[in-house]
Design a protein that fits this description.
Distance between the termini: 26 Å
CATH topology of the largest domain: Alkaline Phosphatase, subunit A
Oligomer: single chain
CATH class of the largest domain: Alpha Beta
Strand content: 15-25%
CATH superfamily of the largest domain: Alkaline Phosphatase, subunit A
Structural class: alpha+beta
Number of strands: 38
Number of helices: 15
Bound molecules: zinc ion
Number of domains: 3
Shape: globular
Radius of gyration: 26 Å
Length: 655
């Protein structure tokens, strides 16, 4: 009897596993360049064994929107996660909700559908997955980037000198004195030095989800034979770490008292500097987190901490504002950040492997944020027209990218190696690309000039505050929407329904009248009515009345909230070069068309799919849509595609 090949194929499909590796803002240019140069051998192998495509994100081209698009197969208008925060009908226009929240999504996620079919899914650090929506499967962490509710403190540095680098981490003064500590004396030939350090102390900026009320004191000892060579971290008589310069401690987990009760917190420290005379000592401390609360199956938490390490988020992603206190990529020791990125990558690999053995998962879906962090900080240094560009900075930035993408490749290799490539569908996807930007567009002056928005001076706060009684529209910049202040929609509304069309038209006219004084160019790539933006996936009551996109090199980055405006912003005029409003964010993605490109960099994202049922060595020049990925995964797994899903199965990649 010969087996029916169709049935065998169906059974094989039904048995397939899914390994989904999400790389936030991975760029087509780097994937193509580094695989070609042999720096990403595992990625190159997967491209060779499978398909390489480019995907057009669903506008707004940013993180929550497109991770939701990827996992729902629906456009932003349908899933409703329009950028980082969403305005809901019935609320005043200044009220918005974070979209880094599964409850804000209006349709099911892929993992919900997989669970309905009996597949066990692990979802890790996926920006829109928390709170968990599955029960049999496991959700670990989620509301990235930098929005983790389990973060207690950001990174900092204990230092004998106050660090004054432009983007140096916040410094806590280290006052070293001669030590009589018997443990340090035993470990040192020369006279040891010591200082007390409170590793879990918070800075003002850190108080967001927890307020630390009391935390343990540790002793940092400095020892050596002829000169100072080592740091020793003590808690009482217990040696927690012995560190040479450049070395990291293991995880230090301890009880701290917070406003939410006693919390077990986890941190790692690195001896970043120690001069032989002991006068310049720097102890870098990572962000620190609660070791509990982030796993949907709480009984697994301690086991994961024990076997894999605690969950952290943002280790791989440097803060985008200098006041977050991250070590600079360019000016200090970028190695520290890459080392943290590597720690994070190893954690994903070990977690996937541990849970594969223990939980026998059918699908592992994860998100890693490193490339987005690299882009926001460094992409501008790779474009000659960026004012911060220099050959030297280009060289350093490119080196960081190359090392960063090698970490990614190693992570991919580690994730892929324990699964059977014959029965696992491997998807490597990104939510959007990124582009360098160096001009700041100020929407307000033209909206004021056209009589569409009005402000009044607030002498107490020293800001211009919106005058709702004279404002016909209200702009957002993430997402790049403009809302009509309709009487029928808002308590602060003034526009009658019959005047809606006229206000919309006038707003579009005002946007197109903006000019770059240096070039005479209009920085608006496209401004259109919501009704005309259906082909961009824009519909429903979470989408603004006018949608606008900027041309490459322009951004609205650093635009403050539009209800209260600092006079310095109005003083900038319609378009200002970044040098007039300095920012350390040199790469950006949110306000561009999905196909936007400048030089080597584009908003279109890379996609690699390999595994059973997928063609080998297939490359498609024309991009596909982000909404196509979820239905294609369902098809490859042999599962029915729910009819509300808007993407198509990528039939051209099927073997
Ligand atoms: Zn992103």
């Amino acid at each position: 009897m010969t087996a029916n090949p169709y049935i065998i194929k169906v059974i094989l499909k039904a048995m397939s596993k899914l390994l989904f590796i999400g790389l936030d803002s991975a760029l087509t240019y780097f994937i193509e360049t580094f695989t070609r140069r042999g720096l990403m051998p595992k990625t190159a192998e997967l491209i060779e064994k499978g398909c390489y495509l480019k995907t057009l994100p669903s506008p707004p081209t940013d993180t929550p929107t497109n991770w939701a698009t990827l996992m729902t197969g629906c456009w932003a208008g349908t899933h409703g996660l329009t950028s980082f925060s969403v305005h809901l009908p019935g609320d005043p226009l200044t009220k918005r909700y974070s979209t880094l929240n599964s409850r804000m999504c209006q349709v099911k996620f892929l993992w919900d559908i997989l669970e309905e079919h009996g597949l066990k899914t692990i979802v890790v650090n996926y920006p829109v997955a928390w709170p968990p929506t599955i029960e049999k499967g496991i959700v670990i962490g989620g509301p990235a980037p930098l929005g983790s509710p389990w973060r207690i403190g950001f990174s900092k540095c204990f230092s004998t000198k106050t660090l004054k680098g432009k983007y140096s981490p916040s410094t806590l003064r280290l006052e070293l004195r001669k030590s009589n500590n018997p443990i340090l004396k035993e470990k040192s030939v020369i006279e040891p030095l010591e200082a007390e350090v409170k590793l879990f102390s918070q800075l003002n900026r850190d108080v967001r989800h927890y307020k630390v009320l009391n935390s343990p004191t540790y002793i940092l000892g400095i020892v050596g034979e002829k000169e100072y060579r080592k740091a020793i971290l003590l808690k009482g008589e217990k040696v927690l770490a012995e560190l040479g310069v450049g070395e990291w401690s293991p995880w230090i987990i301890d009880n701290i008292t917070t406003d939410k009760g006693v919390v077990r917190a986890a941190i790692r420290v690195k001896l970043a500097k120690l001069t032989s005379d002991g006068r310049d000592v720097r102890l870098y401390c990572t962000d620190f987190y609660d070791t509990r609360g982030w796993c949907s199956r709480s009984e697994l938490t301690e086991e994961i901490v024990e076997n894999v390490g605690p969950y952290t988020e943002g280790f791989e992603h440097p803060g985008m504002h200098e006041d977050l206190g991250y070590i600079s990529w360019l000016e200090d020791d970028y190695k520290t950040l890459l080392e943290q990125a590597e720690m994070q990558a190893r954690w994903f690999v070990n977690l996937a492997k541990y849970l594969l053995e223990k939980e026998k998962w059918d699908a592992f879906i994860m998100h890693y944020h490193l490339p987005d962090g690299l882009n926001h900080w460094l992409l501008g240094y790779l474009h000659k027209d960026h004012p911060a560009y220099s050959e030297e900075k280009y060289r350093i930035a490119f080196k960081v990218y190359s090392e960063g993408y090698q970490i990614i490749d190693k992570m991919i290799s580690g994730l892929v190696s324990p699964v059977d490539s014959e029965d696992t569908i491997i998807v490597i996807a990104s939510d959007h690309g990124s582009m360098p930007h160096w001009k700041f567009v100020n929407l307000i002056p033209k909206l004021v000039e056209y009589g569409l928005i009005a402000y009044k001076w607030d002498p107490e706060e020293k800001v211009f505050e919106i005058d709702w009684s004279r404002s016909k529209v209200f702009p957002y910049f993430e997402p790049s929407y403009i809302w009509v202040n309709l009487k029928s929609r808002y308590p602060h509304g003034i526009v009658e329904d019959e005047d809606y069309d006229e206000v919309v038209e006038k707003t579009i006219e005002a946007l197109y009248s903006i000019r770059d004084p240096e070039t005479g160019e209009c920085p608006i790539a496209l401004a259109l009515r919501k009704e005309d933006a259906i082909y961009l996936g824009q519909w429903g009551d979470r989408v603004g009345d006018v949608i606008f996109f900027l041309k490459p090199s322009y951004s609205c980055w650093n635009t403050p909230r539009f209800d209260k405006i600092d006079p310095s912003v109005l003083a900038l005029g319609d378009v200002a070069p970044v040098r007039d409003k300095p920012t350390n964010v040199t790469g950006y993605h949110s306000t561009y068309l999905p196909n936007a490109r400048i030089g080597n960099f584009e908003i279109t994202a890379p996609l690699i799919i390999a595994g059973p049922g997928v063609k080998k060595r297939y490359k498609r020049e024309k991009p596909v849509y982000m909404v196509d990925i979820a239905p294609t995964i369902l098809h490859l797994l042999g599962l029915e595609i729910p009819e509300y899903i808007e993407g198509r199965v990528l039939r051209e990649i099927l073997a």
